[in-house]
């Protein structure tokens, strides 16, 4: 790509939604306050050896007590939308049954503070913090968890729905199902491939049940967020590499997109699901439920996937059913997570969604990167993060120009925070957090993003 194109100014459509995203367990802390019970992430992070540095979300960014300061920072940045998540174990401490008003009081205060600042709240109901008590009954492998989720969704809606216009059921069901139940990288840390496929189905069922009830209750916008990755074959002329890419695309993307948007499992994925589980957990009517109408699809994009066919490869634990597939490291620059940087991958992905699954508008609900801090005097000069965000925004803009119905972009993340199995050392924030003092400092990227938002262009 030539330099003129990379630096030419681009302007987004009028009304494009700009914002930032966070998640409850990653920022709130206050793990034992106001009636909150443990989630699977408390259990997981408190188990020695599962999270880098032995870090937990017990305190995190102490956002539970500092939310007003954090909203003030967002106001300063000029963000129009704040995507946060609600912690299920604060709202329904026993997983099912009575609602805990003190748990909802926190979100009540947060939402009022946001509205006061002119920021539209976008609430995600499930960003991975399942009440531990439900995991003790099988977690997402248990169909009853889907019903419990829909009940929790309505409890949250009844308290906040008069002021929260936008509801997202799940964040990244692929991570919940496959990292949680197949590879064990995430809570609950199980390594049972069959369980992962059951979990994936019940997560989507929970989405469908909740989406329907939220809509009936009057929610203005209902959505679900998936983490997608364009999957490329090493050699596009090699039939085996192309088949390997299709398999991984199925397990990463289509196994969620097709049920959610088209109301069916793709044939090749149904075959894999049946091979691992027998398919008995999929009941009559489930797919119609899962295919509940949504107002937009949330897409989280971080990186592409590159694969090739290789006889004898065991495949990846994160993708059961990938025997004979080799996962390759693309020859690309990397973030501080060692993830390949590929803005064109976002363009490819958006074009494909716009083509295959046309009916649904899209919002990028997460995009961002972790890099080591570069401290120069008083400033945190995170030029690499600015470069990452700018290149991905240009790719998103190209998709808009190509006709993709992209309505908004939310940067991950407002704050440095608890980066799941990596703990606090990986920093994705536009705003730096000093965990010893809880002091917040805008990084250079935050000032840059403020300009992007205020001009609707870069
Ligand atoms: C998102 O997940 C999450 O929604 C958010 O909470 C998180 O903080 C953010 O991204 C940054 O990570 O196991 O090393 O092979 C991103 C989805 C899923 C992307 C796991 C990387 C494989 C990494 N991630 N995936 S690895």
TrEMBL record:
MF GO annotations: beta-glucosidase activity
Q: Which domain of life is it from?
A: Bacteria
Record bears the keyword Hydrolase:
yes
Which keywords does the record carry? Carbohydrate metabolism, Cellulose degradation, Glycosidase, Hydrolase, Polysaccharide degradation
Q: Which SUPFAM superfamilies match?
A: (Trans)glycosidases
The name this protein goes by in its record: Beta-glucosidase
Q: Which family does it belong to?
A: Belongs to the glycosyl hydrolase 1 family.
Q: Name the enzyme's class.
A: hydrolase
The reply to whether Hydrolase figures as a keyword in the UniProt entry is yes
Can you state which reaction this protein catalyses? Hydrolysis of terminal, non-reducing beta-D-glucosyl residues with release of beta-D-glucose
Catalytic residues? Answer: 366
EC number from the UniProt entry: 3.2.1.21
